């Protein structure tokens, strides 16, 4: 609750209310007794003693303090009371204040609920964003493969010391044309990726899933196709190609 004065003085402004002019209530400041209807101050003057005062008497006693906010009626302009509430003000002020207290608690609980719901909504959005970002990062990592290198040829069937060709595509994917020990040609994805077997047209060759690459049927259209789509290419032995990939990084 807001304290209207220093802590050593327990006086508390509880509410500012107003009633119909024809239904004025009596100011309880000793020696006053005027009928008041606008800006009626309900004050806890200490020790649980509640007084209903006109604004003039309130200011005389406590000083003019427009910054003082009543505990229950936030709007200093004065809350208009219903007839029922006016009767309570006159005959059972404590009961009226209890009603105000209940209202205030309900408002506070609603505010807290709204705040918690909006915090939860923000947390949910952040979680969705994080999940989506992680997913996109994964997707990007899959789409643009690292320009991986390896010291040794990973395929045991390659004809020793044979020349090979690397074709680097704009999407970051590479393809290596290598010769099999039996003299036929293969085109291998480098590095390999999901869906490699659907990445090249039949003019290049046929995907061999056990091999992990394409069996080339006709070498000339195969090379023409890979070259046409390549940003750059490197012909040489394995170590030449790995060096070129490292440099292009
Ligand atoms: Zn008065």
Task: Give the SSE map.
Blueprint lengths: L11 E7 L6 E2 L8 E2 L3 E5 L5 E4 L1 H8 L16 E2 L2 H9 L1 H51 L20 E5 L5 E6 L5 E6 L15 E3 L4 E3 L3 H10 L3 E5 L1 H11 L1
Parallel strand pairs: 1-6
Antiparallel strand pairs: 1-4, 2-3, 4-5, 7-8, 7-12, 8-9, 9-11, 10-11
Helix pairs in contact: 2-3
The protein binds zinc ion (ZN).
Work out the strand percent: 15-25%
Number of helices: 5
Which word captures the global form?
rod-shaped
Biggest sheet strand line-up: 10-11-9-8-7-12
* Tally of individual domains: 2
**Low-confidence sequence ranges:** 1-8
How would you state the average pLDDT, rounded? 86
Largest sheet: 6 strands, antiparallel
What letter string, H or E per element, gives the SSE order? EEEEEHEHHEEEEEHEH
Can you put this structure into words, describing what you see?
The chain has 249 residues and is an alpha+beta fold. It folds into 2 domains: 12-103, no CATH class; 164-248, no CATH class. The chain is built from 5 helices and 12 strands. It has helices at residues 55-62, 83-91, 93-143, 219-228, 238-248, and strands at 12-18, 25-26, 35-36, 40-44, 50-53, 79-80, 164-168, 174-179, 185-190, 206-208, 213-215, 232-236. The strands form 3 sheets. It has a 6-stranded antiparallel beta sheet with strand order 10-11-9-8-7-12, with helices on both faces. A 4-stranded mixed beta sheet has the order 5-4-1-6. Strand 8 and strand 9 form a beta hairpin. Helix 2 packs across helix 3 (93-143). The longest helix has 51 residues, at 93-143. The two termini are 66 Å apart. It binds zinc ion. The site of zinc ion has 8 residues, from helix 1.
């Amino acid at each position: 609750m807001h304290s209207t004065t220093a802590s050593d003085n327990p006086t508390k402004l509880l509410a500012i209310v107003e009633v119909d002019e024809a239904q004025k209530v009596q100011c309880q400041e000793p020696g006053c007794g005027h009928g008041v209807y606008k800006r009626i101050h309900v004050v806890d003057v200490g020790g649980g003693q509640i007084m209903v005062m006109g604004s003039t008497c309130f200011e005389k006693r406590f000083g003019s303090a427009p910054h003082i906010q009543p505990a229950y009626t936030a709007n200093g302009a004065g809350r208009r009371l219903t007839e029922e509430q006016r009767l309570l003000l006159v005959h059972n002020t404590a009961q009226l204040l209890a009603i105000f207290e209940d209202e205030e608690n309900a408002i506070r609980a609603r505010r807290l609920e709204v705040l918690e719901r909006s915090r939860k909504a923000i947390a949910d959005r952040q979680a969705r964003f994080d999940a989506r970002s992680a997913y996109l990062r994964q997707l990007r990592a899959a789409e643009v493969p690292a320009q991986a290198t390896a010291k040794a040829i990973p395929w045991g069937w390659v004809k020793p010391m044979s020349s090979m060709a690397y074709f680097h595509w704009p999407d970051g994917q590479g393809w290596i044309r290598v010769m099999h020990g039996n003299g036929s040609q293969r085109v291998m994805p480098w590095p390999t990726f999901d869906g490699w077997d659907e990445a090249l047209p039949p003019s290049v060759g046929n995907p061999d899933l056990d091999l992990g690459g394409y069996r080339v049927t006709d070498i000339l259209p195969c090379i023409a196709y890979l070259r046409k789509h390549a940003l750059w290419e490197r012909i040489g032995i394995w170590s030449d190609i790995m060096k070129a990939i490292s440099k292009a990084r």
